[in-house]
## 1
Amino acid sequence: MIKLLIVLITLLSLSSVNAELRLLSFPGETIKLMLDVDQEVQLNFEKPLSSIGIPTDIKNNIKTQLIDSRIWIKATKAFKPTRVLVKSLKGEISVFSLSASPNQQKAQEYPIKYNIVSERRQAYKSSSSGSSSSGSDSSNNKKNTNTATKAGENYIALTRFVAQSFYAPKRLIKKIDVVRVPINTKQLITLFACSKNLACNGNVSASPLASWKSSHYYISAVLLKNTTRQQIVLDPRDLLGEWKSATFHFNRLGRTGSPTDTTVVYLISLSPFEQSL
């Protein structure tokens, strides 16, 4: 069973990642989210909400419903990036930059779900997973916690480092405690299951680029390329393997031969890449 935590990361000198299943936002930074017209999305927050502020410019282009800590959004017409503020019961503000474009594929019957999680919360979960109150396990869990809380051990830091290793100038890359590990880069791999989005795995070729190891995780980068004449929206639910986190640099692939037919997915696992497939 695939266990995924899809993260939305604002990378230095990079465009924001638009992930399909779950988002993780940095506190205080704008979350960019592109909607497909007529495709409903569900935003799940950690805390109960009080309001969502929709500017008058797009009120006729969007439908929203807020219940407790969840928001359902459906764009009925296309619109340009617009700032939307979401306020929690405690007065905390989340800033979204919403935009909508015509859907190139048939809308799904069910909402695409996004979990909005703070970086601090995610790092805490990574460091405290598997904790126990028993005396014999306490010592082991303390060691695991100390290991997991080292600099660069959370999913965000690992994914940011690998993405910047490919796309950012070396002087801007923040060094973390990881080492490069061998990975077979000379063969294509089967990374997707067949689905109505992909039709079949052969529609998207996948080839490993590189892999690193921290004291607790492996983080690998895989190049994805659309081999069809149709636009493809990548869905993490179609991924094969055991991943703790999966982040598409861009989740939309243009038709083959276009400048947007290629992207990279960053995969975090507990085992080496080949064993996690």
## 2
Amino acid sequence: MNTHVEVRYAFSPAEAKAWDTEKARQAMHIPQLFAANKIYLVYSHFDRFIAGGIMPVEESLQLEPVDALKAEYFLERRELGIINIGGPGTIQVDGEIFHVDFKEAMYIGKGKEELIFSSKDPKMPAKFYVNSTPAHTSHPTRHITKKDAEIVTLGSQESANLRTINKLLVASVIQTCQLQMGMTELHPGNIWNTMPAHTHDRRMEVYCYFEVPQGQAVAHFWGQPQQTRHIWMQNEQAVISPPWSIHSGAGTSNYTFIWGMAGENLDYGDMDMAAITDLR
């Protein structure tokens, strides 16, 4: 079987206070996204968010409906965002072929039935990182490169958080139902992301860390601002962040991460900021 699906249930801050490291990792950490000729998906009950990886090598892979969706096809009631973090690949959407290179994105709207993923070169396979959320209507399929993105630079070298944020699937670039995705690249010598930290009660989030050098790692911080914890992340792993939790990280080297969000609004101004000196 090419597709592996895991279901993760939602949890409250009160539950999380009692967890040890292993329990927290079981609830939030996604240790594997990619394996040759496999599709790995995690279905979270936080906003019904799906995160996963598709890695075609010698063969093409079709994204088919899974039991958790109770649907005739994967996007019957969903939308899909994709960012390729591997070699060049193609995505066939109801017969139309899109060429998607490294760090390029795709948006596929509700109602598209046939989704086929392929690599151009088995020696440099594509790694399609995917996020999917429920959708109420259909929006056009789009291929999005960095030229299309809204790009901003934040932070400073002095505070070790100089970073470039590539907003790929956001309201200023493309119309979606609720899914938002982007990619943040830490500059060399910088390690901190999303600091000062914040929460947003009307949106959950999933982070996928990649370009983490061999032998290095990222500490992902989570929890309520006065009850923070951490999960150590390796290269090409993801972590689920509940709406009530901060989501921030510091690496032993610079790295890149993809953020994906779902919720009832698309306004970034709804964040509840937490001052660095108030974190506990």
